[in-house]
UniProtKB/TrEMBL annotation:
Biased composition (Low complexity): 107-118
Organism field: Nocardiopsis exhalans
Residue span of region Disordered: 103-127
Protein name per its UniProtKB record: XRE family transcriptional regulator
Tree of life domain: Bacteria
Length: 470
């Protein structure tokens, strides 16, 4: 019988740094990990059982190769029980425990806000050898298959994220291809917002490598532009990785986006990248840190402009929406409602629904986020009421439109209206099937709906599950 972890195991830091350790962590080989724990932590099967909450019989079966681990929460519990450090956690496909890890602002407190650097952060060629080794150790990490998994192969993106910038670059080409890089970055963002995730996943690795190389081969006015493009491309990578539940790498991509944004010295770019980092924090349930990062960056964007531009106002409002959803996730209704009201005011000031700085911000987007927050608060009725107020023709970005139907499906499922939940997902599938095939969290939703379905509905949901690989 599965229990709760009751004790922890301590392993010397040098043991985690061995290359052999990195190899089995990349493979997520729990059998090898338990053998490692026994060798370097001096832990018996009983001690591993107590630390991880697994039964002693299950531990024995894993050690003998008769059982494997596939559930994400078990990976998390094992890492927690053996006090796995942040770098090995990322090798293992988990996000670091500290929100500030790998941002240069690490804090022992899980709720600490990863502050934005006041000074220009080091350029790609100035990254320390220690950090380079930490990042390079992630190369080759594959996408975690949580609930049937995503159909996207993330190995190439992982390799691009963990590559040392500047390796093998051509200064002449980097200096003359900035316009081409801008077009490719634009294409990646357009593709992401259109839910063409397979295409974007294939575009990103080379784009990230080329942009990192270009950052070391330009000067003058081009420096700020190339860093803004890097921030945008890494933002796309972080967003795609978050959808695919690749938690460790999404955290790393969000960190890279924020660093590049700081180097661009453009407040609107910084704010846009902070949105990605906020989502990464939310994914790890660091809701307080996510809310504080979103609101403090929104204030920073607002105070940086004497008069708000459409871009800065859109970023400002989008950050408030991120903060509102994060506040809802930590069940702080008052803060969530206040932030929604502030974002609503920003939407009214903007005067409509636009896609400045790739935010898709406006009054409609405020309403879409109210739907998401109501679902997070378990208020299914309010979520559906908000959803019914949305004018679909006002949603120009397909990714946002499909997300609305997925949120509606979640609300209907909470409400016990299983058939309505199924039809909402069918609408989402017809609009952008990759939103369903790519996202493990949607797979889980489909399987939850199937457990409540019966008769013809059960057959329909089963067919949907088969089509999307749930």
């Amino acid at each position: 019988m599965q229990g709760r972890p009751t004790s922890r195991i301590t392993i010397p830091s040098w043991a985690w740094e061995r290359e052999h350790t990195a190899e089995f962590l990349r493979r997520r080989d729990v059998q090898a990990l338990f053998q490692f724990v026994r060798q370097y932590g001096g832990a018996s099967q009983m001690a591993i059982s107590a630390a991880t909450g697994l039964s002693q019989g299950r531990v024995s079966e894993i050690l003998n190769g008769r059982k494997t681990v596939t559930a994400f929460e078990v990976y998390e519990r094992i890492a927690e029980g053996i006090s796995m450090p942040d770098t090995p956690r990322m090798l293992f496909g988990l996000a670091p425990r500290s929100p500030g890890a790998f941002t240069g602002h690490e804090s022992a407190a899980p709720s600490a806000v990863p502050s934005l650097p006041a000074q220009r952060s080091p350029g790609p060629g100035e990254v320390s050898k220690v950090r380079r080794r930490e990042f390079v150790g992630l190369a080759g990490t594959a996408l975690f298959q949580a609930t049937g998994g995503s159909m996207l192969d993330m190995d190439e993106i992982a390799a691009a994220l963990t590559r040392y910038a500047g390796a093998g670059r051509s200064t002449a080409r980097a200096a003359t291809s900035l316009r081409e890089l801008a077009q490719r970055a634009h294409s990646a963002k357009v593709g992401y917002q259109a839910c063409h995730y397979t295409t974007v996943a294939k575009q990103l690795p080379e784009l990230l490598r080329n942009l990192d190389d270009a950052a070391t081969g330009v000067d003058g006015d081009d420096v700020a532009q190339v860093h803004a493009l890097r921030a945008e491309a890494y933002h796309v990578a972080a967003s795609l990785l978050l959808k695919c539940e690749e938690r460790g790498l999404s955290y790393l991509a969000a960190d890279r986006s924020m660093r590049a944004a700081e180097d661009s010295e453009n407040p609107a770019v910084v704010g846009a990248s902070a949105r990605a980092f906020t989502r990464a924090l939310m994914r790890e349930r660091h809701y307080k840190a996510a809310t504080e990062l979103a609101t403090s960056t929104a204030e920073r964007v607002d105070s940086a402009m004497d008069e708000p531009t459409p871009e800065s106002l859109s970023v400002y409002g989008s950050l408030l929406l991120s903060g509102a959803v994060s506040a809802a996730k930590r069940e702080d209704r008052d803060q969530a409602l206040n932030l929604f009201d502030e974002a609503g005011d920003a939407g009214e000031r903007l005067g409509g629904d636009f896609n400045y700085q790739w935010t898709a911000f406006g009054p409609t987007n405020v309403l879409l986020h109210r739907v998401s927050a109501a679902v997070e608060l378990g208020d299914a009725g309010s979520a559906i009421d908000y959803a019914r107020q949305v004018q679909l023709d006002n949603i120009k970005v397909m990714e946002r439109r499909v997300t609305l139907f997925i949120d509606a499906a979640r609300a209907y499922q909470q409400w016990g209206k299983t058939e309505h939940a199924y039809h909402a997902l069918r609408n989402a599938e017809e609009m952008a099937s990759e939103e369903l095939t790519t996202r493990p969290v949607v797979h889980q939703l489909i399987n939850d709906i199937r457990t409540r379905a019966s008769g013809h509905l059960y057959g329909n949901v089963s067919e949907l599950a088969e089509r999307v690989g749930a």
